[in-house]
Amino acid sequence: xxxxxxxxxxxxxxxxxxxxxxxxxxxxxxxxxxxxxxxxxxxxxxxxxxxxxxxxxxxxxxxxxxxxxxxxxxxxxxxxxxxxxxxxxxxxxxxxxxxxxxxxxxxxxxxxxxxxxxxxxxxxxxxxxxxxxxxxxxxxxxxxxxxxxxxxxxxxxxxxxxxxxxxxxxxxxxxxxxxxxxxxxxxxxxxxxxxxxxxxxxxxxxxxxxxxxxxxxxxxxxxxxxxxxxxxxxxxxxxxxxxxxxxxxxxxxxxxxxxxxxxxxxxxxxxxxxxxxxx
Length: 279
Known about the structure:
Elements: E1 7-16, E2 19-23, E3 29-33, E4 46-53, E5 59-62, E6 73-81, E7 85-88, E8 96-99, E9 112-120, E10 125-129, E11 148-156, E12 160-165, E13 169-174, E14 187-195, E15 201-204, H1 215-226, E16 230-231, H2 239-246, H3 250-262, E17 266-269, E18 272-275
Parallel strand pairs: 13-15
Antiparallel strand pairs: 1-2, 1-4, 2-3, 4-5, 6-7, 6-9, 7-8, 9-10, 11-12, 11-14, 12-13, 14-15, 16-18, 17-18
């Protein structure tokens, strides 16, 4: 069977009154209706299509590109609500169904919602759910600290913003790591800041740690490591002392120390700079 909700590269095998039939390597067939058949084609041509169920619940191919596919998260607008549930516009003729039990809040036409597209095993139909966290799994992680990842903002909490990582895992951007407005459905790049013992993932929008810090910040970091994790310099230290010990101005020192602090690499205390234990 040709998998519903996915793109496939299929071979044209024959023409009918309703369109052309396509076939995969296993010999499974699906109809590409006339409205999607290219103007010029030949038998044995390969064509890339998306396969889903039409209004009569029959597998059908289309050259249209949906806004999301099987096992993928995305923002979709609600176009209709009936006694059965809500219907979302995902770029195809037949809208994507969301049952009432799969809605975090009652959906309303004209509003957009972050949803996950899945295959309902009871009906063998593609459907969507706005209970997106139920489809994320942090039990086995595929990411590592400092790795750049794709993010999708799912919701705001008291701590920060929950994000979907690489369409697989759940992560959190703390409020003090957010330097621009964020809203549900925003897609952006980020970095793995830390993976906790319970597999909870902390995310940063700026590259974490020493991998991207400016030269002066790196110089301070090197001095801290060489000194066992402590330097008795602060923003109240004499400019000449800072210059003699670090070869930088007091202004540059304050800026570099601030960068290390924002990246959670150091702590700034009254007696000086302290390297965090996890660095």
